[in-house]
From TrEMBL:
Pfam families: Fungal_trans_2, Zn_clus. Residues 17-29 have a biased composition (Basic and acidic residues). Residues 77-107 form the Zn(2)-C6 fungal-type domain. Residues 38-52 have a biased composition (Polar residues). It comes from the Eukaryota. This is Zn(2)-C6 fungal-type domain-containing protein. CDD domains: GAL4. Residues 1-75, 426-456 are annotated as: Disordered.
Length: 456
């Protein structure tokens, strides 16, 4: 009753009996929109359509993008994540996104771990190894290509990415030090074994870049010259030289991006001729007699040579000795023909040739080692110090070869061995204008001249 009376007092009734309340005098009349909203909250009527301006504001607010959390761009993600343009967790074998959506997760082939080069870390090496590395850079890098100091410094930069190259370099340096009394034979052998194992593993797959091709080729050269430092390394040296020939044909050194490109294009004989010159030289009586005695010792081997490779090898040495009569430097440059015979020989030909019980071939190798060292020492002039270490190894090789000969064959080795033993007594240091263990053709003979057996 009270509420009805209040309504009748404050409101006006219409003809239908409906009651409408009046707004307070101090407040404005609500807008039609607000009135509709109020009635909407009181009665379960359908939602009315909002005005155009309000609808546009609401749409703009709903479409405002939610800021995404920043992340590092995935460049090696799976194909599904790349297609969806989302970050890939790069989990193996399946990323989390593909697992969540039930997709087949596939990664690009470049992610294959076996294709990545082996990485060396400083923690793998000892202070002695650091000493070997330093010695390699200063004194023990391979003497070929001639005058290639900068090349081998650039090669050394590759060694941190290729374990076989690093171990080959350390092994050569250790063998070089051991040759001069450094007592590093065990360390040299350990590095050599690691280098060969790692290089064989690398050679089982195709070469992927110019840098890798250079590393393989450089490692093979380094291992070959390490064998040239080893008193028992002659057979291994010849085998490794064949390996250089194989790798040179399969690596990328013939491409202009290779560190060895210039050397590969010019070739060893031409580089020797360019660097030392090969002018004809008139031999004095001493050198003429020396070469004649060497030729006579070679001719005595002819009846002993039976295989095709032995006959060709003897003929090649005789040709080089003949060239030496007019130009020892040209003979030294042509000495690669000897290695070419062995490099192109089949395994069936090469294996019997280096067999310790093939005594005719062992005699050929004694003469081969002696003439190569002698011609190099005569011809290289100021460059000879880079090959000076070879004297110790060459004499050791000849001694080992001669020691394995039966008594009936020792007479064929008498002349070269007598000459080699006299050579061993001479002091070979950096060449000077006043001293040389064996003067070049045309020079006056002095107290250090090496005379052939028989008092010449």
């Amino acid at each position: 009753m009270g509420s009805t009376t209040q309504a009748n007092t404050d409101g006006d009734g219409d003809g239908d009996g409906n009651v409408h309340s009046h707004a307070p005098p101090d407040k404005p009349e609500p807008s039609p929109g607000h009135a509709e909203s109020a009635s909407e909250s009181l009665t379960p009527t359908p939602t009315p359509t909002a005005s155009g301006s309000e609808l546009a504001v609401a749409v703009r607010q709903r479409r405002r993008p939610i800021p995404r959390k920043g992340h590092t761009k995935s460049r090696r993600g799976c194909f599904n994540c790349k297609r969806r343009k989302v970050k890939c967790q790069e989990n193996l074998p399946e990323c989390s996104n593909c697992v969540r959506f039930g997709l087949v997760c596939e990664y690009p082939q470049t992610l294959s771990p076996p294709s990545a080069p082996l990485q060396s870390t400083p923690t793998l090496f000892t202070p002695d190894d650091m000493r070997f590395f330093h010695h390699f850079l200063l004194n023990a890098y391979p003497p070929l290509p001639i005058l290639a100091d900068d090349l081998w410094r650039n090669v050394a930069c590759l060694s941190h990415s290729y374990d076989y190259l690093m171990h080959a370099m350390l092994g050569l340096a250790a063998s070089h030090l051991d040759l001069y009394g450094g007592n590093c034979a065990a360390q040299a052998l350990a590095h050599r074994v690691k280098a060969i194992q790692s290089l064989n593993q690398a050679l089982s797959r195709p070469c992927s870049s110019a840098a890798e091709g250079d590393a393989r080729f450089a490692a093979m050269i380094t291992l070959t010259f390490q064998a040239s430092c080893m008193p028992e390394g002659m057979t291994e040296f010849l085998s490794m030289a064949r390996g250089i020939h194989v790798i040179a044909n399969t690596a990328t050194i013939t491409h202009d991006g290779s560190l060895f490109y210039a050397f590969a294009q010019e070739g060893y004989p031409h580089s020797v001729r360019r660097l030392i010159g090969t002018p004809p030289v008139r031999l004095d009586a001493y050198w003429g007699s020396l070469i004649d005695d060497f030729s006579q010792s070679l001719r005595a081997l002819a009846p002993l040579c039976t295989s095709s490779l032995e006959v060709k090898f003897l003929a090649a040495i005789e040709r080089i000795v003949k060239i030496a009569k007019t130009s020892p430097a040209e003979a030294f440059a042509e000495f690669t023909s000897q290695y070419s015979l062995l490099n192109h020989a089949s395994n069936e030909e090469f294996a019997p040739f280096v067999d310790p019980e093939n005594y005719s071939a062992q005699l050929l190798l004694i003469h081969f080692v002696l003439i190569e060292f002698a011609l190099g020492h005569i011809s290289l002039g100021n460059l000879r110090f880079r090959f000076a270490y070879r004297r110790r190894a060459c004499i050791a090789w000849m001694e080992r070869l001669a020691a394995g000969l039966p008594d009936q064959y020792k007479k064929y080795a008498q002349w070269p061995m007598d000459y080699a033993r006299r050579l061993a007594t001479m002091r070979l240091g950096p060449p000077t204008s006043s001293s040389s263990p064996s003067p070049p053709p045309g020079a006056s003979s002095g107290s250090q001249q090496i005379a052939p057996p028989g008092g010449r």
